[in-house]
Amino acid sequence: MASVLGMLEERETAARVRMEGLREEVARLAEVLEAAEIELDRRVIAREGLPVTVLAPDCQRILGVLKQQRSTGHGPLRAKETAVELGLEATPAKVEGLRSKARRLAERGWLLLEASGAFSAGRRTVAVPDAGSSV
């Protein structure tokens, strides 16, 4: 007859193995979910004719500043200059966060990323596979 302590240890080991398997499954599903969200974002946000209101408020502000710069005849702005125009502190963390958002907007066709690394307002065509069939 097995000891009670031995049975408890076996159950604990089985529970730990199950828990580890579930953690791996959760991590895999999180990756799948993230990929699906990115795909949905690209399909919705890259479409021609969508209003700016489909963008997050921070992205709308970035786009607004760059459109204003274009309308006044100024050229593209770097991320640090855009941060200053938005009234943000030009700390590395704030500038990098803004640069990341601006790059995503450029990837999705809302902004133009110049060779110099500066951003300007303007739309470009974004290739979206099967754009007409899913959304």
Describe this structure in words.
This protein has 135 residues and is mostly helical. The chain folds into 2 domains: 1-45; 53-125, Arc Repressor Mutant, subunit A (Orthogonal Bundle), CATH 1.10.10. It contains 5 helices and 2 strands, in the order ααααββα. The protein has helices at residues 4-45, 57-71, 79-85, 92-107, 131-134, and strands at 111-113, 119-121. It has a two-stranded antiparallel ribbon with strand order 1-2. Helix 2 packs across helix 4 and helix 3 packs across helix 4. The protein is elongated.
Fill in the keyword field for this structure.
two-stranded antiparallel sheet, 2 strands, 2 domains, 4% strand, Arc Repressor Mutant, subunit A, 135 residues, mainly alpha
* CATH homologous superfamily descriptor of the largest domain: Winged helix-like DNA-binding domain superfamily/Winged helix DNA-binding domain
Q: Averaging pLDDT over every residue, what do you get?
A: 84
Estimate the global geometry from the Cα principal axes. Answer: elongated
The helicity comes to: 55-70%
What is the CATH level 1 assignment of the largest domain? Mainly Alpha
How are strands sequenced across the largest beta sheet?
Answer: 1-2
- The DSSP helix count reads 5
Number of strands: 2
What oligomeric assembly is this protein in? Answer: single chain
Low-confidence stretches: 131-135
Note the gap between the termini: 63 Å
Relative strand content: under 5%
Order of helices and strands: HHHHEEH
Q: Please state the CA-atom Rg, rounded to the nearest Å.
A: 24 Å
State the major sheet: 2 strands, antiparallel
Broad structural category: mainly alpha
Number of domains: 2
At CATH level 2, the architecture of the largest domain is Orthogonal Bundle
